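Progress note, sequence design subtask.
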């Protein structure tokens, strides 16, 4: 692989976006649009909704590695969430920062191509709070995922701690939540819940 190929894989040749933070994590615009349904990216043939990336990372890694190849597919949706690159507590901090960078870079790049994007926000533990909310406008709409934390007390505790920090730093006017409902969030009136795709699939007896 040539040095040019390596730079292309990391999207260096596509350029960098404006950033107001020391990490260089891109600042994205506040897109607002109606979200009727959250659809797993390229899993459901239906495109009448907003694409989400609450999936295994390998299923959407191409959106980063081959960014231009996915643009026309992304334009078929009403809008998209930014890709949910995994943030795990056992990941080195440098890698977690990289995951946040890729999330925001994809969002900024897609917006530059005329695609409406709502940022997906994720975190690991308290140490990630200094960078995991960067690049997102205050008072805008954000998306979060609760898949896999319902029956894990440690994960639930970390989620709730990060959720409260997100409210403090971003003051979102609307929160799109994909996954199982948490009773801990019942008192928040600005949350719009979306049931996991597989739950709907099972209910239909498929």
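Output:
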């Amino acid at each position: 692989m040539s040095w040019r190929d390596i730079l292309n894989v990391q999207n260096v040749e596509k350029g960098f976006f404006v950033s107001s933070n020391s990490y260089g994590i891109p600042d994205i615009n506040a897109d607002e649009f109606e979200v009727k349904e959250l659809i797993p990216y390229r899993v459901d043939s239906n495109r009448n909704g907003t694409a989400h990336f609450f999936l295994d990372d390998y299923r959407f890694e191409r959106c980063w590695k081959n960014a231009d190849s996915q643009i026309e597919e992304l334009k078929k949706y009403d809008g998209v969430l930014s890709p949910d690159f995994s943030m795990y507590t056992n990941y080195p901090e440098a890698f977690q920062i990289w995951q946040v960078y890729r999330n925001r870079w994809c969002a900024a790049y897609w917006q530059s191509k005329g695609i409406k994007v709502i940022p997906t926000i994720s975190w690991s533990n308290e140490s990630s709070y200094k960078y995991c909310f960067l690049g997102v406008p205050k008072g805008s709409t954000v998306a979060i995922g609760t898949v896999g934390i319902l029956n894990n007390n440690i994960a639930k505790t970390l989620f709730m701690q990060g959720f409260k920090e997100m409210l403090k730093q971003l003051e979102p006017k609307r929160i799109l939540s994909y996954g199982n409902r948490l009773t801990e969030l019942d008192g928040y009136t600005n949350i719009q819940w979306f049931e996991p795709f597989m739950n709907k699939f099972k209910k239909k007896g498929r």
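The longest strand covers residues 141-145. Work on this subtask will continue into the next period as scheduled.
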